[in-house]
Amino acid sequence: MQSKMKESDPILEVENLYASTDNLPILKGVSLTVYPGEIHAIMGRNGCGKSTLSKIIAGHPSYNITNGDIKFLSENINSLEPEERAQSGIFLGFQYPIEIPGVSNLEFLRVSTNARRKFLNKEELDTFDFEELVKEKLEIVKMDHAFLSRSVNQGFSGGEKKRNEILQMALLEPKIAILDETDSGLDIDALRIVAAGIKKISNAETGIILITHYQRLLDEIKPNYVHVMSDGQIIKTGESDLALELERKGYEWTDNFIKET
Amino acid sequence: MVNENLVKDVVKEPYKYGFVTDIETEKIAKGLNEDIIRLISQKKEEPKFLLDFRLKAFKKWQKMKEPDWAGLGYKQIDYQDIIYYSAPKQKEKISSLDEVDPKLLETFDKLGIPLTEQKKLTNVAVDAVFDSVSIATTFREELAEHGVIFCSISEAVKHHSDLIEKYLGTVVPPSDNYFAALNSAVFSDGSFVYIPKGVNCPMDLSSYFRINSGDSGQFERTLIIAEESSSVSYLEGCTAPMFDTNTLHAAVVELIALDDASIKYSTVQNWYAGDEEGIGGIFNFVTKRGKCLGKRSKISWSQVETGSAITWKYPSCLLLGEESVGEFYSVALTNNLQQADTGTKMIHIGPKTKSTIVSKGISAGNSINSYRGLVKMGTKATGSRNYSQCDSMLIGDQASANTFPYIKSQQPNSEIEHEASTCRISEDQLFYLQSRGIEFEEAVSMMVSGFCRDVFNQLPMEFAAEADKLLALKLEGSVG
What we know:
- The complex is a heterodimer of chains A (261) and B (480).
- With 261 residues, chain A is α/β, with parallel strands linked by helices.
- Chain A has a domain at 12-98 and 175-259: P-loop containing nucleotide triphosphate hydrolases (Rossmann fold, 3-Layer(aba) Sandwich).
- Helices cover 40% and strands 27% of the residues of chain A.
- With 480 residues, chain B is an alpha/beta fold.
- Chain A: It holds the Pfam family ABC_tran.
């Protein structure tokens, strides 16, 4: 199975990436390649640069790439605007989804979906057709229709916010989804719903990066690779059992890898 | 910061209505004195009571001092350096639109207000005012069939002088304030609306004010009377060319609603705002007030203020009639060096009166945007209620927003509720929308319309869409 994956071109290539914010270096040479159909997990202590890596791939304006490249479908995207990246199929699930008062969730989802569809040369959807589509996707995240008439994420519980992220992912059908601690703060039921949502969109064509602290998400979705990050670098890469070992031994165990290198 | 280039590209978005119509005009000499006032009155062939009204107002104005309490920064206005009457030269008597100078029709065409029979808007009657005179009013005959009078105030003075004499200055007396006194002395043209008893005006009425001349002021005067159990929705739009000097626009609008009558007055104000350095633009110093004279009468103001170098206005309601209702819905957007000091006064006089205030201020660039409002419960306003909500949105870190709510209650058995909030469009919010494929500019305008939604919901349909676009246009490039 894995060898078959490698036959096609990678979806995402992060090559020796250095990045900083306010002149403070955060990433210190990260390399990561994701092929179609692969699921990667990135683990590591808070502050190790996991979230930063995800934001930089999505094009967050607060970070500067000081060295290295990010390639998406073999094209360098270092200088693309966040919306261009999103339209072309990069999805970032936020650790803390942002509240946008006054903007209806339905309208937001529709404009966003249409931006992606436009890029794919698909017909843009009017309100009625979109309602149909969204109804079907709501099933995946077990969300009530009433969510759509509320303002984007405003007054949503932690779990509702995360499910709204998965709903967006399901609508946008990205080529690669980077989910930044989508599992944190979820109860067991919500975690299952989120995991089911992720499974639903993952197929032989897409790549998924799960940033997580917990094994419980990886019990639901088995990753092909697990990377451990520390101080802005990937210090160890292994298969899914690496996560289990990490869970047993704690991050202190990983400190030894740094000493080794 | 990011998007800085994008910002620079779009900030230059030109003001769409900044053109000047090259037309021969009749102007009187600059300056203000009794003779000038007599001349204006004579040109308009006014009856004596109106000349007296003007002269009395002028005497009062001379004794008044220009107010400075709003703390607005502007160079002192030289009232002797303004032309108080400017009109495009036309035939003496115009009997049909065919005789109107094509240049004028073309001007309004360009502004999106076609006036000719073939092209005129089908669901709105329009009174088009160019500098000091009204050019044309559409659908007059159709409206007359319902007994509705819709014409320029100059014509109303000639043909309905009884109504003018009875109501003019009864809501905003000439001595009300400095600019109202000035307007009362020199007012040129504006609209007159009379809705007879029991009539629901069959279409929206609208006035479009165009300042064309750079050195003349515009002193518009509008009077709307809604008789018992009648109703009307009135829309007002304004634009002006781009000049590097400031032009004074000092209007007075008076509304009167009798028993069970309702008036909805909506404004989209897009006077030229001056350039990025704050050079030029209109001084929009306006007194707008409605009197809910009758029982269960209702006056609703909604305004979208995006233009003018300085906006200084407080559309207000005097709630006299028992159970009368006053409403004020406002969006004021300022960018670059614009200043806006706007709000409302809800004066509860009668019992069981109700008022609602929803104000949304958006400040971008280096602008200053203030809400200033008064809610007063008089001694007889028992069982009256007010609800106010004033929200400000800041864009960028150079703009400022202020809220000055004044509350006076002389009636313990009344309720006043005030809510206020300030927010800022954050980089994280923008990034969130962008990371879902939504373009930067669209993201900003989505957030701004979301912020203004409560007010836009109150606007007539066509206006709401226009207001949304206008805000988006005004804001282009203001975030970075």
